[in-house]
Each structure stands twice: as structure tokens, then as C-alpha cells.
Write a structure and sequence with these properties.
Elements: H1 2-32, H2 34-52, H3 70-80, E1 85-93, H4 100-114, E2 119-123, H5 125-137, H6 146-156, E3 167-175, H7 180-196, E4 204-208, H8 210-243, H9 252-270, H10 282-306, H11 311-338, H12 346-392, H13 412-426, H14 428-446, H15 455-458, H16 464-476, E5 480-487, H17 494-510, E6 516-519, H18 520-527, H19 536-545, H20 548-554, E7 555-556, E8 560-568, H21 570-592, E9 600-604, H22 606-640, H23 643-667, H24 678-702, H25 707-717, H26 719-737, H27 742-764, H28 766-805
Antiparallel strand pairs: 1-3, 1-4, 2-3, 5-8, 5-9, 6-8, 7-8
Length: 812
Amino acid sequence: MRRWLRKNVRITHKEVVIIKNLFEKLGVFIESNTIPIILVALLLVLVSVQGAQNITMESGTDTFVEKTSQLYQDFDHLYMNIFGIEAIVVIVEDGQVSDPAALQAMDRFEHMTLSLPGVVGVQSATSVIKDANYKVNGEAALPEDEAELAALIRDYVPEGLMPDATHALMYVEMAGSTSDEQKQEILRELEVSVSMAEFPPDYNVVVTGEPAFMVSMNNAMMSSMAVLLGLSVILMVVVLYLVFGHVRWRLMPLAIVLLGIIYTFGAMGYLEIPMTMVSMAAFPVLIGLGIDYAIQFHNRIEEELERGESPEAAVVDTIKHTGPAVLIALIITALGFFSLLTSSVPMIQDFAKLLLIGIAMCFLASLFVGVTVIYGLNHMQSIRKEKFAKLFSNGKSKSKASSSTQDTKPDLMERLLGSTTTFTLKHPFLILFIALLTCSAGLVADTQVGIQTDTESFVPQDLPALIDLGHLSDITGGEDQFNIIIKTNNVADPELLQWMDEFAEHEVDSRSNILGAESMASVISSMNGGVIPDSEAEVNALYDQMPAQQKERFMYGGNMLLLNLNIGDAMGSLGMEGIEALIDVVEDDMVWMAPPPGVSATITGSNVVFTEVIGALTSGRVFMTYLGLGLVFGGLLLIYRDLLKALVPVITMFMVVGWSGGLMYLLGMDYTPMTATLGALILGVGSEYAVLMMERYFEEKEKGATPEEAMSEAGTKIGKAIITSGLTTLFGFCALAVSDFDIISSFGIITVIDVGLALFATFVIFPPVMVSLDNFREKRKAAKTLLDGSFENEGLDREIGTYGNEPGADAF
């Protein structure tokens, strides 16, 4: 065993030497090619700006559910692409909607709308009135006689198009496959059409509906992202002035990290990673993380220059010593983020991709551009100083002030950190007992934290589009649906239509949350005096009489039918968990009232899709957290080949994971697609602090300090640097907390708290865990050495005793 350890220690040392040699060569390359590096960096900015033009904003169903899943295939391919019709709703209100002047304006609006590209139809009271007038009087126009007009409205216009005397609804229908860009263009044209239709002055016309809400939300999110990035920059300026004042060009790290963000935008466009409500929050996170890389390189090269090294040697030494350390920190952070890729929620996968790309871009910008710029600025400053000295020296020599040999007294922060470390080492069992108890309680409480996937709750509640959508729901009572896709070999089979009619009637009568149903069976029944025909020929005859638009709404080809179950405003009344339970009830009913042989029925719809997200967030987030723990542990073990060094940082961050869940429960916060990533984020960000503390601890031990002395020294000397790094990350996340979008602000608030907890764990939990386990290992090694020595002595005694008993031994 000892031979194996010695072998691996030699290999590890050799690998470290190789890595440092590689970075030393890289340092020589950077120092020798400063101008080409700057030119390449500027060229990449232009390339990145071009790539950023390809970034698209997405907020549809495919950002919640994987496109390859059967659930998405049923919804997107079978329903949306075949039957799905999205409707922009135009509300006409605040006047008598049966007034001829208002109806004439609706008719003008409908004529203009039908000519728009992407619009497949318009449902309105005027179209119904004209169709009815054609049947009654043979004239496809609005009647001029008001009494006749009132009679047609009373007898033919459904309540869904004219809910009351002061409200009329017009449904502008688009194909389910219409892109977001096409929807936005149609909305712009509809606004123009409303103004050109010349509604009477007293009437209010509102363009709303789910598509209008989603487009408005996308635009608001893009504007919010710009504000968040600007606020992050301001906050970073503040923190750099507060804690980074001991170096020249203190704002340089901010410029470098923003360069890395530009590169990230470019890569995002070229790799076709969309902007979603989750991925947009990656940029403040990257500012918080990336600026730490820039600070590390900036601080080290200034330190080397202050030692009196030549600028060339300072560049090489900075990259040789700081490059590997920062790279290790990046790898550990990336391993924590990598677990997010296992999520079944696409927007979380995109968030992970963006984080992984972003930290790599920030590292490369800091390594190549940051060091090069500092080197160049120092060179220009040296030239100016030489010119200034020659101009004003007049041959006089200046004596140099002798440096003080007295030790600098520790400041308040250093004394506080030293006292904290001393206290934790004096009471390790008490601290660890409290930490384990609160962590365990937090893990239990975490199972009670709710899940929020209602996209309407993510946006600002004063968003005009959301208010309009709520107003529409108040008028209609809600228009949520379950969509049942029915596959058959014969769409004219009377037995199948009879089953559809009976099943729909059963659901409406037996389930209080199912308010109505519509299908080809209901259309055929209404055309045939309220009953389903007995023969296939009669059904086909009715199909022939049916308008093509009505037929396409409920039937596709000769093998697919659609049954819609209206569940009103189920999202508001039941919530996602209630909808999930209702879906289970309907599925059970389809088993109990099975369709005819050879027929299959599949329930789908947007509400059905979002229930899948609940399961993904509930189980997926836990899996991602523990996978992240395993990846960070494996990465540390591979890098250090030391079980203790791999285990202690993970134990420290695991405490934070438990505390985070308990804190969310106490604050009454729900998990969202963003906060579900917190476990992996804590591991990725927080492990860096523990690793830095651990590196300094073992460095002090190598100098001969005891574990307690080494930890006290590490906590005092590197503590300020870790707190500075933590503050930069905190300030990056703080920008999220002021977002108008609740999904982003809640993520920012809890993440700021969690990063604070990670810093707390680094200074309070890490020291007793590390020292206790290290002392335990040292005692085991000492006992094993003592035991091995006793065996060796015993064997030697036996050997001597044997020789002494032999004849002639005494004479020897």
C-alpha cells in the first residue's frame, strides 16, 4: 500500500511540474506576442457581435419539455401541427356591441385581418351574422334593418362571441406552428387594423390572448436583461473600489469580464442556444464568477511587479503560478454546473451550457487579454516615468526611504477571521452537531417546498399584457382545455362517434372542473337533430355538407379525430397539482370507458405538458444536486488523489445545500425552473472557497505548523481574499434581486443568501471538519507506524534470541 502511495505521489508531482511548465511556456508566448493577442481579441469582438445577432428569445412549451419526449411529440406533432390553432383575441367593450356602427367596424377589422400572412381565419359575431343572413335572406352581409339584425344576433350568435351586451370577442386564428417572429408581426398588423377599422369613439378595443401575452413577456424579458447587466456593472464598480484599491487600474477586471461576456454572447448565437427566462440570468452570475478570474491574474502580476521583477518575468511567473490554480477552480465550478445538463427541462440545459461556455470565455479573456493589457499599461507607465524623471531630476540623487522592518499589525477583518477560526477549533463537536442538525432539518423541510410552473406568475403582475389576459379570463371564465387525440382507421364509424359523445357527456356531468366538450361527434349530432347517425353512409353525407374549416378543426385525414374538454380557468382554481390530479382522473375514465377496439386515445394539451415539468423539477433537482456532489468529489479526488482533500470541501457545501432548502421553506418560497438549479450552483460556486482555504492550510502545514496552527494561519491570511471573491459574486447576483420578473428576483434573493452561507460554511464549518479529520488521519498514521515498528523490533529480538541460544554464542 505504501509503495502504491509513493508511486502515485511521484506521478502527481510529475504532473504538476508538467502543467506548470506548460503554463510557463504559455506565459512566454503571451509576453512575446502582446500586439497579436490584442488584435485577435478585437477581431473576436467583431465576430462575437455578428454571432450575437443570431440569438433568439424563446418562452414556449419546448423550453419546458424535451422535444424528443413522447409527451412533447404528442402535443407538438399531433396536436399543435395538426389541430392546434392559436388565437389572438380582440375584445370590443364599453358600449352596446349590437350597435350597427360597432358591428360595421368589426366587419372592417375582419376583412383587413383575413388578408394578413399567417392568419388562417377569424371567428366573430359579424361572420356568424352574415352567414345566418345568407341562409335566411340569401345575402352575405350585415342587415341594415336593426330589428332584423337584433333577431339574428339573438338566434345565431353564440355566447362565446358575444358574452353580454357590452362585450364582443373576435378570435384571430393562427396555425399552431406559427413562429414567435410571425406572431409578433401579426400583432403589430392587428394594432394597425384596429385603428384603421374606425370603431366608435366610446368603445374600447383590446388585443390580447395567450400569444399576445407571450410576445409581450419576451420583449419585457429582453429589456429586463439589459437593465440587469447594467446594474451588475454598476455594482461591480462599487465593490472594486471598496476592496480592490491596493492595485493600479482597479476597474480593469470589470472590463475583462465584460469582454468575456461579449464572447459568450457570440458563442451563444453560433451554437444556437436560445435566450429563455432562465438562461438570461446566467450573465449576472458570470460577471460574479468571471471577475474573480480577472482579479486573481491582476492581483498576481501586480504582486510580482512590486517584488521588483522585470515586467517580462512578472508575466511569465503570473501565468505559471496563477494559471493552474484558477484552472482548477474553473474545473471544479464546471463540474458543479455540469450536473444541470442532466435536467429534462430544456431551459435548464441551456442555462448550464451558457454557464459552462461563459466561465471558459471569462477565463480565456483573463488569461490572455487581462495579463497582456496590464503588461502593456505597465510598460507605457514606465516610459512616462522615465521621461518625467529625466525632465525633473537635474542630476540630483534621491535617497530611498528605508523599508520598515516592523510587522504590519492585523486589521479588524484579519482579527475577526482569526477569532472565528480559533472559536470553531475550540468547539468542533458543538459546531458540527448544530450544523448537522440544521442541515438535516433543512433537507426534510426541502421536501415540503412547493413547485411553481405557472408562467403568468413569473412576470411582473402590472405587465399590461398580463392584465389584459386576466380581463379576458374574467369575461370568458377561462379557456383552458384538455385535448384528446383519437387515432382510428375509420373516422366515419358511428360506434366511435357514439363513444366520443357518451364519454364527453360523462366527463361534463361527473367532473365538476370539466365545463364542456366539443368534437366532431358534437358537430355531427347537432347537424342530425341531436343524435349520432346509425350508418357510416349517413355520417359521410354529413361530412360532405360540413364547411372545410369546421372539418379541419376536429378531423385530420381519415384516421384522426380531436375531442376538446373545456376546463375553464383550471390553472387559477386548481393549480398545477390539481390539474395533474384531474388528468389522472380523465385517463382512468378512458380506461374504464374504453374506446372501440382498434381505436387509441391520448390526452395532451399545454396543461398536460406543464405537469411533466413538475415531476422533472421535483425529482430532477434532487438528482442534479447529488450528481453535482459526486462530480465535484470525483474531480477533487482525481486532481489531488487524496481522499481527505476531496471529501472535506464536499461536506462543507453539502451543509449549505441542506440549509438552503430549509431557508426556502421558512421564507415561503417555491421552486421554479431557475431555483431548481440552486444545488448545482452552490456546489459550483462554493467549492472554490473551500478549495482555496484548503490549499493554504496544507501550505502552512508543510512549513511545520500543527493542524490547529495551520488552520488559524490559513483563515487569517487567505480569508480576506476569499471574502473579496465572495463579495464580487454576491454583487453579481444582487442585480437579479431587483428584477421585475418574480422568477428572476426570487432566484437572485435566495442565491445571494446561499453564497453568503457558502462563505459562512467556509469559515465556520470547514475548519473543524478539516482539522478533526486531519488529526484523525495523523493519529492513525502514527499508530500504524508505531505498530509496524513494534513488529520489526519483535522480529529483531527473536532473531537475536535465536543466535544467543546457539552453542558458542557467549564466546562470540
